[in-house]
Amino acid sequence: MRSDKRLSSEAIEILREEIADANGNEVFALGFLDATGMVDRIKIAARGHESAVLALPVYYEDADVLIHNHPSGLLSPSDNDLAIASRAAEAGLGSFIVNNEVSRLYVVAEPIPKKEKKILDEDKLVSALEPGGAIANRLSKYESRPSQLDLMRLIIKGFNTDAIVCAEAGTGVGKSFAYLLPAMAYAILNKERVLISTATITLQQQLYEKDIPLVAGILKKPVKAVLIKGRSNYLCFRRLQDALHEGDLDLEQQAEQLEAIVRWSETTSTGSKSELPFVPDETLWSRICSEPDLCLAMHCPERERCFVQALKREAADAQILVVNHHLLFADLSARSDGAGYEQTVVLPPYQRIIVDEAHTMEHSATSFFSETFSRMSLMRLMNRLYRKKRMQSYGLAVRLASFLDTDQFLETIDGAIQTVKASMDQLDMAAQTLLGTEGVFRLTSEKKQLVSAQLLPAMRELRQSISKLCGTLHNALETLHEDLQDDPLIWELKAIIRRIEQIGSIAGSFIEFEEKGESVFYIELMNGRRNDGFARFSITPIVIATSLQEALWSQFKTIICVSATLTIDNRFDYWKRRVGLEFETDRNVLSGIFPSPFPYDRAVLLAAPTDSPLPDEAGYDAFVNTAVSRLIAASGGSALVLFTSYTALKQAYEYAREELQGLGIRCLKQGDQDRSRLLQDFLQDESSVLFATDSFWEGVDAPGNTLRLVILCRLPFRIPSDPVYEARCEALEREGRSAFMELSLPEAVMKLKQGFGRLMRTSSDHGVVAILDGRILKKRYGSLFIRSLPETRQAFGDFDLILEKTETFLQNR
């Protein structure tokens, strides 16, 4: 057709000039439609040669039409043109081809007119949370919270203006309702999907089971929400059948659990592990759960009743997706690696995201982008391939052998596996020698001679033995008849081979660690003391910020980040820097701090003894042990004592236990039982005290008289020997920046805020937060910790005065 039927005269002229400037070669341009459907604006994205040009996907989102020229004058699309047009069409873009004179035009795909965005009615939504509003009337103990209403207004603005929102919402603000109402209303109004990501499965389930149904009940139109966990949370029928048929379970307990899981599988509608009436053995569950790289998809004989496939079908037309951070980063990683942002990858496509508990983003991303292996993880793969028990052989290799003509295959595989196991044992022993009594060892250039002598030879042996094993398996697979290539056994075997090869790849990276300065390489002792445990080998990116900027901040229309702890001294600078948001200068970034409505100024006493020694001074440990015991005795229990090291925890616990139990105070210690059971015992006994460390600084919700005293024994600075922290500090110092001021101090302040937040969980709670670290008052930076906390009553004096004021404050409430 004539080009002037689809292009304005200005657009035609611009294209002609650009093609001429490119010497008649191919040019890739973006076209933008006016109200009549004509392309009236052109933006040049790339220039090529006489037969090809880059069609860069990064530009697709803002355009309406992709346009390129064929210098030959023949406008029929090539196969590559059709493939690009197909991908673009998924995002609603059209594709045009023109000749060099831009006199003729061929429409490969018509553009889909962009629908007009509908704006949320701020006043109408906010009124639902005001006294007498739709939500307020559904909650028996509802209290109007101005900070919650202000937070909702900011979030509504974020949706309406396609902005990034950073919001710190103190405990009790009610952030879930503040973001759920706008999110669900926007999804209904604009027929767009909104993704909500949380740090924990517990919060996922609370949103899905309690909060979302409540909000959905006040909206005039139905909204479909789907809860999605990581695949390993779901049962796989095919792998369950494999485990039953192989019959090689190592423990009688596993056999009993397997029978119970089979019975449960016949009645469960979701297949989610959390619905089991018992906690399954970890090794057993890993044998029967769904795994992404072990999934046979359309080749699976159980696909019709697959729980994961059913969940994917549910998610495909859901308006609200409730996921966790690990799943979000798995999806973002695949999309940024080339899968694109317009189609289903790990999750269905989305353009609006809410990140709850956003203070954990850097940790979650670091964990996801790290690579690890250990003797335990490798042995599990070896045993999945081939193992013997009571003169009987089991595993995928045994089943593969039944397809082969040779009788030597299993003998060869057995020998190759034994070589891998021996290499791994040697590597583990070498690693534990390096670990010594420290429990952690980081590979650095300064330690090159030591590492080269004691570790890398064993690492090379492991890589070579893995290569030989996988080569043998690949050779066997290549001899199979073509009809067998789609057999479920072969698919799973190939996935296991990929996992083993990945360990070989990690081993190769360790060998070349000096050439990979963007990552930190380290070894940790796991599962106990030396000779009782095993070494875990890890590679972690030093900088996460760049990856997040590229995969997250620059890709989505609305991103809402909320948490109770995002600021230091009322500034978001530290958090923005750590997660890469400081690089996003072209986006509209909104921020706000929404204080807790709780009466901290009346209900909380912040206490710190002026006579406490500094942690590096003689007598500090003794002071802490004594102070902890006397403070708990004064409160009558109802206490949470938080430490930064398990050694200090055990010392204080042993010092105080006998005396406190004599006063009728039950002493609970982290490590004596699993976390959930420990918390349950603590919550059910108001006179108990819980001694805990790292993971209990957040996520403990103990309202009422269960918790009236929180003791923070030491300011939560990261242990200097932490390899990732150490590497990140060094990276900052190399840039001439202060690692203490930019990383160590703000990170400790954020964690102290989390620990402090354990005390007040409802507006009627009250109690004392005692900080026993002398640095809070004696060091200049100590005031930053205090300024970053809510305004409270304060008691700063010698310990006897602190003890007296603590007892008086608790008795008068």
CATH class of the largest domain: Alpha Beta
How would you characterize the largest beta sheet?
7 strands, parallel
Give the number of domains. Answer: 5
Give the count of helical stretches: 29
CATH superfamily of the largest domain: P-loop containing nucleotide triphosphate hydrolases
Cα radius of gyration in angstroms: 30 Å
Mean pLDDT: 91
Pfam families: DEAD, Helicase_C_2, RadC
Protein name: DNA 5'-3' helicase
Family: Belongs to the helicase family. DinG subfamily.
Enzyme class: isomerase
Could you characterize what this model shows?
With 813 residues, the chain is α/β, with parallel strands linked by helices. It has 5 domains: 3-109, Cytidine Deaminase, domain 2, CATH 3.40.140.10; 143-224 and 317-369 and 544-597, Rossmann fold, CATH 3.40.50; 233-310, no CATH class; 374-541, no CATH class; 600-811, Rossmann fold, CATH 3.40.50. 44% of the residues lie in helices and 16% in strands. It is built from 29 helices and 25 strands. The strands form 5 sheets. The protein has a 7-stranded parallel β-sheet, sandwiched between helices. Helix 13 runs antiparallel to helix 15 and helix 25 packs across helix 26 (739-756). The radius of gyration is 30 Å and the shape is globular. The model has no long low-confidence stretch (mean pLDDT 91).
